[in-house]
């Protein structure tokens, strides 16, 4: 068959695969629920939420716990850190994290870190954790008055921590692994995340729908962070209808001279509920973002990058089950995507990772704000680690 006949058929197949992705539900495998050893079924199952998955050292690291001050299973630390070793097909506990929640993992300069999301000790110090080359972990409990440590990044030889102090937001900076800290205070709220766009680093607080002077973004300049009142919620999350007052940028991945991230509502103390997928670039020192259009009703949950490919985890919950989809974007053109596959599950996947041809999914659940939660919203499948073999590698 000649190419001019084949080409329309190929394009038709690609468009249909995006609308009608392969349903791989029968090929999904539950390989375990390691957090169940610490958090039982019922209310405590909320603390099995897999807030983050991270591939490192050919293993899968699994975040759990709950730092919320209200709702089910509140302030549930200390948290056992579980790891999955695919070579031996086993889970094991690698350390105990003396915080209420393992919210994110950070790979910085080839080393694995955990920001101390909500220390279970006194409020005099905030924590961060560093995995040693022999697989042990060292806790650094030395960030002054840091109630919460939300993010970590390196810049100009400094380890920077995005923190929440008792009196407000700050970036803590150290050049000697925490023996000495310089605290750069940034007004109200907390510093929830760092975002690199090219060579420019920003510290991000919560974003507010307000016409009053308020800065959510501070730019790093020569060892200091300078408030950017000109970057608002509408710059970071364009073409978005806001249903809740406060928003955050999460799941941030920077590459080339751009970044991709999720917009999410802030709720239940420190948790988030995503509402959109965005791409941003920097022009004339200003952030220009655009919202990436997804299928109606599907919520973006997590982002990972492999080479030139961006994978996006999305889900749409119905009354009895959730449709989970993995989308594939080319990093150079996020206007179009291919839906790789979908599957049905009793609850949504909060996080995912990819290693050795296998996708790993960490299951979670959501509840209503504060003490308005219902037991029916806490899924017994929360904490499940689910796999799908995408290809042989």
Quick take:
Helix content is 5%, strand content 50%. It has two helices and 30 strands.
Summarize this structure as a short list of keywords or feature phrases.
single chain
How would you describe the shape?
A: globular
What percent strand? over 45%
Q: If you compute it from the alpha carbons, what radius of gyration comes out, rounded to the nearest whole angstrom?
A: 21 Å
Mean pLDDT: 92
Number of strands: 30
Number of helices: 2
Low-confidence stretches: 1-17
Q: Which structural class matches the secondary elements?
A: mainly beta
Describe the overall structure.
The two termini are 32 Å apart. The protein contains two helices and 30 strands. The strands form seven sheets. The chain has a five-stranded mixed sheet with strand order 1-27-26-25-24. A five-stranded antiparallel sheet has the order 17-20-21-22-23. The model is unreliable at 1-17 (pLDDT under 50). The chain is mainly beta and 393 residues long.
Detail the topology: elements first, then pairings.
Layout: H1 3-19, E1 22-23, E2 29-32, E3 53-56, E4 59-62, E5 79-85, E6 90-97, E7 106-108, E8 111-115, E9 125-131, E10 137-144, E11 146-155, E12 158-165, E13 168-174, E14 182-185, E15 193-197, E16 200-204, E17 207-208, E18 217-221, E19 224-227, H2 233-236, E20 246-255, E21 258-267, E22 271-283, E23 286-291, E24 299-306, E25 309-317, E26 322-330, E27 333-345, E28 349-355, E29 358-363, E30 385-389
């Amino acid at each position: 068959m000649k190419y001019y006949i084949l080409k329309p058929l190929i394009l038709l197949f690609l468009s249909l695969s995006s609308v009608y992705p392969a349903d791989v539900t029968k090929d999904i495998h539950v390989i375990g629920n390691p957090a169940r050893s610490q958090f039982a079924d019922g209310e405590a199952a909320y603390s099995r939420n897999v807030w983050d998955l991270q591939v490192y050292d050919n293993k899968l690291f699994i975040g759990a716990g709950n730092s919320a001050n209200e709702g089910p299973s509140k302030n549930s630390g200390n948290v056992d850190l579980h790891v999955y070793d695919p070579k031996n097909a086993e889970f094991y506990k690698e350390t105990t994290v003396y915080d209420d929640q393992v919210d994110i993992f950070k790979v910085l300069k080839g080393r694995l870190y955990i920001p101390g999301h909500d220390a279970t000790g006194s409020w005099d110090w905030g924590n961060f954790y560093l995995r040693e080359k022999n697989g042990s972990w060292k806790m650094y409990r030395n960030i002054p008055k840091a109630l919460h440590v939300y993010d970590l990044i390196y810049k100009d030889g400094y380890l920077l921590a995005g923190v929440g102090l008792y009196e407000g937001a700050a970036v803590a900076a150290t050049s000697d692994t925490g023996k000495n800290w310089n605290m750069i205070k940034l007004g109200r709220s907390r510093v929830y995340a760092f975002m690199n766009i090219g060579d420019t680093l920003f510290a991000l607080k919560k974003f507010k729908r307000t016409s009053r002077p308020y800065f959510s973004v501070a730019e790093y300049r020569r060892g200091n962070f300078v408030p950017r009142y000109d970057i608002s919620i509408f710059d970071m999350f364009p073409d978005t209808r806001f249903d809740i007052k406060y928003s955050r940028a999460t799941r941030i991945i920077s590459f080339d001279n751009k970044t991709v991230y999720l917009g999410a509502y802030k709720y239940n103390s420190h948790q988030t509920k995503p509402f959109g997928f965005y791409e941003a670039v920097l022009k004339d020192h200003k952030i220009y973002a655009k919202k990436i259009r997804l299928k109606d009703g599907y919520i973006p949950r997590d982002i990972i990058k492999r080479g030139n490919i961006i994978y996006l985890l999305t889900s749409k919950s119905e009354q009895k089950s959730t449709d989970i989809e993995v989308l594939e974007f080319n990093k150079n053109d996020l206007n179009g995507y291919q839906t790789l596959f979908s599957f049905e599950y009793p609850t949504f996947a909060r996080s995912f990772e990819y290693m050795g041809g296998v996708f790993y999914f960490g299951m979670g659940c959501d509840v209503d704000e504060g003490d308005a939660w219902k037991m029916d919203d806490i899924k017994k499948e929360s904490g499940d680690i689910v796999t799908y073999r995408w290809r042989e590698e």
